[in-house]
């Protein structure tokens, strides 16, 4: 376990073979992952691709688990490019927590742990996240995790038969260092 990925409330760990059935059932149930994270049915191969870290470290994921090891969600990252320079990338993170575990601060903790990991393991200047404008719970979680609201990205997500706006958030390496 990398430093900064464990607290008394929650920890992040790699997907294990024992998690696969639970994870497949969860991501294939819109009621579990929530309306903002449901996109399509996923296969076991899709799941492995979502949660395995690529060799460059530019994408990957972790299971969000309680201290007793119970899996309660997933947090992941993908590469977001800004401009043509090879260095102009940052991790864009995403999260879901199963319904019985929402509202307890686990998502906030998981996002903090992932930010710590990404800044410790990479040289990126920023980590970003976005969420739908109609997802106030995730907006609060991101702000509690230290992210700054940057603005609205208009009509960026197709969901439920229409386009939705998102709010873009970031935490800069300088913000992260100052908060430590």
Structure description:
- There is one protein chain.
- The chain has a seven-stranded mixed beta sheet with strand order 1-2-3-4-5-7-6, sandwiched between helices.
- The chain is an alpha+beta fold and 180 residues long.
- A hairpin with a 5-residue loop joins strand 2 (60-65) and strand 3 (71-81).
- It starts with 10 loop residues before the first strand and ends with a helix.
- It has a single domain (11-179), classed as Gcn5-related N-acetyltransferase (GNAT) (Aminopeptidase).
- It has helices at 20-27, 30-33, 44-51, 106-121, 136-144, 173-179; strands spanning 11-13, 60-65, 71-81, 89-97, 126-132, 148-159, 162-172.
- It is built from six helices and seven strands.
Under the CATH scheme, which class? Answer: Alpha Beta
| CATH architectural grouping | 3-Layer(aba) Sandwich
| Low-pLDDT sequence parts | none
Mean pLDDT: 90
Q: Helicity level, as a percent range?
A: 25-40%
Q: How would you spell out the order of helices and strands?
A: EHHHEEEHEHEEH
Count of the separate structural domains:
1
User: Which radius of gyration do the C-alpha atoms yield?
Assistant: 16 Å
CATH homologous superfamily assignment: Gcn5-related N-acetyltransferase (GNAT)
CATH topology: Aminopeptidase
What coarse outline follows from CA principal-axis ratios? globular
Q: Characterize the quaternary organization of these chains.
A: single chain
End-to-end CA span:
20 Å
